[in-house]
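Subject: design request, 187 residues
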């Protein structure tokens, strides 16, 4: 069974995107598709980094732990809200901390917004950033409009049938990329 990490990127009080991270964790476990963990940037509470991990003389334990979790993940789902057309500074800070850990990593991007567009505006900026880090973003998208009404604090969707339908395609693409990445020709 593959290991998929879910990166919950919002650090704001009252965040709703974390509910979607919980949904993905529940979904992967319920369907027995992968082992999983949530990497919560709010828990890490990183300062603004002034250098990359590679050049830090004495990295903190939580920085090393974060890098290890990203590196050991076979695939990652990034759940991010859209803030003013972009993604959170907390996510950019965490992405820029690392480099090799992102290289060729299969990543699915789930975007959320409190409005009707589901965070689609931040998707392209995040894809471009990850592309520059040489990550492998999957083509499937998972966007959640009106997130405050779509998922409760336990990750339960208000429309389970449609959420599961979209998640099935999204996860299928991510797991396909994970398997392709593990193929002998990629080693």
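Subject: RE: design request

Done. Sequence follows.
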């Amino acid at each position: 069974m593959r290991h998929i990490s879910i990166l919950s990127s919002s650090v704001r009080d009252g965040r709703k995107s974390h509910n979607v991270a919980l949904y993905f964790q529940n979904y992967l476990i319920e369907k027995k598709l992968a082992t999983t963990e949530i990497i919560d940037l709010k828990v890490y509470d990183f300062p603004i980094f002034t250098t990359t991990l590679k050049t830090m003389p004495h990295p903190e334990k939580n920085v090393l732990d974060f890098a290890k979790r990203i590196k050991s993940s076979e695939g990652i789902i990034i759940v991010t809200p859209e803030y003013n057309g972009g993604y959170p500074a907390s996510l950019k800070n965490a992405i820029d901390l690392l480099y090799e850990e992102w290289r060729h990593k299969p990543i699915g991007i789930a975007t959320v917004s409190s409005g009707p567009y589901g965070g689609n505006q931040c998707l392209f900026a995040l894809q471009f950033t990850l592309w520059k880090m040489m990550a492998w973003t999957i083509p499937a998208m998972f966007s959640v409009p009106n997130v405050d009404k779509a998922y409760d604090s336990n990750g339960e969707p208000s429309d389970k049938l449609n959420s599961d339908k979209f998640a099935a395609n999204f996860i299928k693409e991510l797991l396909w990329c994970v398997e392709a990445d593990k193929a002998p020709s990629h080693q």
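The mean pLDDT is 95.
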